[in-house]
C-alpha cells in the first residue's frame, strides 16, 4: 500500500495499523509535524533520512513495526521515542543530541544489544524501558535524572556504582534477570571497612522489582555464608550491620518484589523499610520471616505464596489488607498481636497450608475479628474514606466451627432474622463454607469466606 501525499501544515500524523510500506518523500517537509504515529505498521521497513529535518517533532511511535531494522539520525525537540517490538540492532549515537528526550521505550527489541554511551548525556531523560531485550548484558549508563528504569528479562549481571548518582530514581525493574546476582555490589574477599552501597543516595526509589533473580545476593548474607559456618558466626555482628546499612538506604521504598529469587534468609533489617506498603517474597526458600516485620506499620500486602519451607509467621502488621500464604505446605504457626490493629477490609489466604495447627488458626481468626470490630467503629464514625465491603479468610479444613449458629449440608441455608435486626449495632453477616476441589491447587477459589 502506498501512502498518499500529506498536507504540509499537518500537526498529527496517525497511520497506525495501516499496510503502508514507506512514507512519501514529502514527509521531510512537514515542518509543523509534532506527532508521527506508525504503531503496528508491519510492512514498513525503513524510515526516510529526511525525518531528521522535522524540527517540530515531539513524539515518534514505531512500536510494533517489526520489519524496521534501523532508525535514522533524529534531531530536534523529540521527547517521546517508542520503538518496542521492532527489529533494530542498535540506537544511533545521535540520540545524545536530543536534549529534550524524556522517554525511550525499547520493550522486546530482541536484536538490540547495548545502548550507546551517549544516552548518559540526555539531561531530560526520565524513563527507560528495556524489558524483554534479551541481548542487553550491561546496565546502561543513564542520566542522573532518570526516574524509571525497567530492565526485566535482560542479561545484566550487576548494577554499576554510578547508580548512586540517580537521585530521582523511583522505579527499578529487574524481573526475570536470571543472570543478575549483585545488589548493590559484591564485597566478597575484600578487607571491608566501609560498606559499598550504590543504593544509599536513591532516597526517591519507591518501587524495586527483582522477580525471578535466582542468583541474587541479599545484603551480603549469602556472600558471608560462602566463608564457612565458623567464620560466619564470628562475623555475624558485622554482617548484620551491613544488612541494616544497605536496607536503611531504601527506607522510602513503597513496593518491593523479591519473589522467586531463591532467598534462604530474610534479613532482620527489612524491618527498617518503614514506608513499605507491598512486600512480595513468594516462591523463596526461607523458613521464617523476622519478628520485626511488625514494625512495618504501612504494610498492606504480604506475598508468601509457594514458600515451601516457611514454618513460622511471627507477626502480622497492623494495617495488613492481603496476606497470600497459599501453598505454604510447611507452615505450622502464626503469631499475631491484636494491639494496634487497624480496622480495614482484608483477604487472608492459607489454602493448602495443611500443617497449620489449631492454635495458629485461632490466632488468625482473633486477628481478623479484631480488624472487623475496628473496621465497624470506623464505619459508625462515618469516615468518608471507609466503605462497606466484604473480607475473606481461607484455611484448609473439613468442618465449620460450632459458633456458626445456622449450618446446613448442601448449597444453601435459611436464616430467620429477628425483628428490628437492621439497627446501629448490626455488624454484618459472617459466612463460612467447606468446599472440596478436585485438584490440590486451585487459583481464585477459596474454601471459606468471612
UniProtKB/TrEMBL annotation:
Record organism: Hevea brasiliensis (Para rubber tree)
The keyword Repeat is assigned to this record: yes
Classification of source organism: Eukaryota, Viridiplantae, Streptophyta, Embryophyta, Tracheophyta
UniProt-recorded name of the protein: C-JID domain-containing protein
Keyword Repeat attributed: yes
Entry keyword set: Leucine-rich repeat, Repeat
Domain of life the protein comes from: Eukaryota
Record domain C-JID: where: 395-438
